[in-house]
Amino acid sequence: MSSLTAAGPAKVKGQGVKRSGFLPYLGSKLAAALVSFFVTLVIGFVIFSLMPADPVRTLTRGRPTSEAQLAQIRVQLGLDDPIWERFLTFVGNTLKGELGYSWQFQQSVSSLVADRLGPTLLLMGTAAVLSIALGLWLGIRSGWRHGSLFDRIASSASLTLWSVPTFWLGMILLVTFSVGVGPIPSLLPAGGMSDPSLPQEGWTHVVDVARHLVLPCLTMVLVVFAQYVTVMRTSIIDEMGSPYLLTARAKGLTDDAVRRRHAVPNALLPSVTMIFMHLGVLVSGAITVEAVYSWPGLGYLTYEALKIPDLPLLQGTFIVFSASVIIMNLLADVVYRFLDPRVRAQ
Prior knowledge:
Helices cover 78% and strands 0% of the residues. It contains 14 helices and no strands. The chain is globular and about 85 Å long. The relative contact order is 0.13. This is Peptide/nickel transport system permease protein.
């Protein structure tokens, strides 16, 4: 009875230690995330404020405008205010959740971001699921059979695709499958998200969006999956010499069971961290792909804003991209702590 009584408080005390150890860890990561976000705000404001283009002349291009009218527009847009005053206004509006007003589209940046967020999440979400599934499967198989013909082919293809610029690969696929090269006819739409001549609802619309999604999604998958293959393959090879795998084989487990139950769960730790980090980067990395295929998401919105340049819109999308990367890095740190006992012990 006394041993049970003693065990109870000890268990509660151990749980309290774990909980109390997690809260300082989470607090430190949140503080680091806030500092990173503030630094990105400063960097983003400085970069966009120092752009050499004149947005007022671009906005009035093709219209007879006097110098007095140009000066009046600059005053209305706040471009004549001191840079420190513009920075304080920018930070204050950001903290209040106000991203400003687009000069080009004549509407709030928040509404523009909300309208374009769905297409970006559709493209990036689909590409992320496919690249993660394909990359981890190939990485596991290649690492477990390292040195085989399958491993050499998978590793070579991964390294080649990893080194290819995304925009270049996108243009090659666009010319090949949308324009048509030689005997290859035009098979897929060249750009956009849907065909305006078709019904914008029902299964016809779903199939139309899926056809437009193929090429931009394929471009992202071919570049991103290669990174998962490389990391997962290396992790599997590192785990293969571990003593616990020899013990599992000595117990009579099959090679497939040893791989699935023991090697893969431990080798997944670096890949899980990379997945969370890449989820944030994927959103911000959509600019080139969406620009190539005119996909109406946040990346293409950023590309349109760069033409002016529309400073409030550029700063707004920059905040969204930066926040997505910082949040995913924070989630990666938290998840990794739960998955790896060595981090919990620190």
